[in-house]
Amino acid sequence: MGEAKAPRTVDAAERAQLIRVAVYFGPPCLIMVNALAFFLHEKGMISGGAQAVLAVLSVPIAIAGVVAIHVGTSRSAAGFAHVVSGAGNIPPPPSYPRQEVLITRGQYAEAAEYFRDHIRIAPEDLEARLRLADLVERHLGGYEEAERLYLEVRQLTQDAREQFRAHNGLIDLYTKTGRTDRLKVELARFADRYRRSPQGEEAARRLRDLKAEDTTSAPPRSPR
Q1: What fold, for 97-178?
Q2: Domain limits, CATH 1.25.40.10, in the chain
Q3: What gap in Å lies between CA 25 and CA 16, rounded to an integer?
Q4: Which residues are CB-contacts of 108 (< 8 A; sequence separation ≥ 6)?
Q5: Which candidate, 27, 166, 193, 198, has a CA 20 to 30 Å from the CA of 9?
Q6: Sign of CA dihedral 97, 103, 105, 110
Q7: How many CA atoms lie within 13 A of 15 on its CB side?
Q8: What does the DSSP 8-state code read for residue 2?
Q9: What secondary structure does DSSP assign to 174-205, as a single string?
């Protein structure tokens, strides 16, 4: 004989959820099925026997509905938890303990060197490039290095989150350094890539404002 499988255990939270669904959904389902059977019988659309059959079937219908709703809500909750916690198909971002300690101490240059060494060893780690770009741009004035790193990430990554962060990083960098020409290019690219999203609409608005400023600040043409 094969080894007997252990029965599946159900924790208290799951039992409570099942009871909650049964209380809130079960009685209304029974009422609706029986009301429908009564309505159809009164209209002469079904016989009395069919009404009785529907009344009997209302119980298993309600039970099936309770089970379906419970399973659906449980899966939805699990999926949301995976997204929030970085589980499932979305891996959590890597951590860099040594660099983070140095940044906490204000040793930004040393942290940047550790990031550069790490990137030389693991050039595929695009998260490290994003962290280094943010570090040198914020604390070391390394605007050219930050621009290069953001452009590399945007070119190399297939990850939507990394693409978004690289785009945002370039927009913030060009805004900070006053490079309006490059800023307009990035805003146009961002607005096109993320159109119909709040972020894309904001980028399009900023681009329109910059173009309007160019128009108002342009010197008047001399009459011919």
Answers
A1: 1.25.40
A2: 97-178
A3: 14
A4: 102, 135, 139, 140
A5: 27
A6: positive
A7: 5
A8: P
A9: HHHHT-HHHHHHHHHHHHHHTTTSHHHHHHHH
Q: What is the pLDDT along the chain (224 residues), one digit of tens a residue?
A: 444 444 444 455 566 666 776 666 668 777 877 888 777 778 778 787 877 877 777 778 778 776 777 666 655 544 444 443 444 556 677 889 999 999 999 999 999 999 999 999 999 999 999 999 999 999 999 999 999 999 999 999 999 999 999 999 999 999 999 999 999 999 999 999 998 899 999 999 999 999 998 777 666 555 55
Q: Which residues contact 132 (CB under 8 A, 6 or more apart)?
A: 112, 115, 116, 119, 145, 149
Which of 47, 70, 67 lies closest to 59, judged by CA? 67
Q: Which two tokens stand for residue 96?
A: 């860099």
What's the rounded Cα separation, in Å, for the pair 88 and 86? 7
Token reading at 141: 């004035």
pTM reported for the whole predicted model: 0.58
Provide the residue type at 139 as one letter: H
- The whole-angstrom separation of Cα 185 and Cα 169 is 14
CB 86 within 8 A of CB 54: no
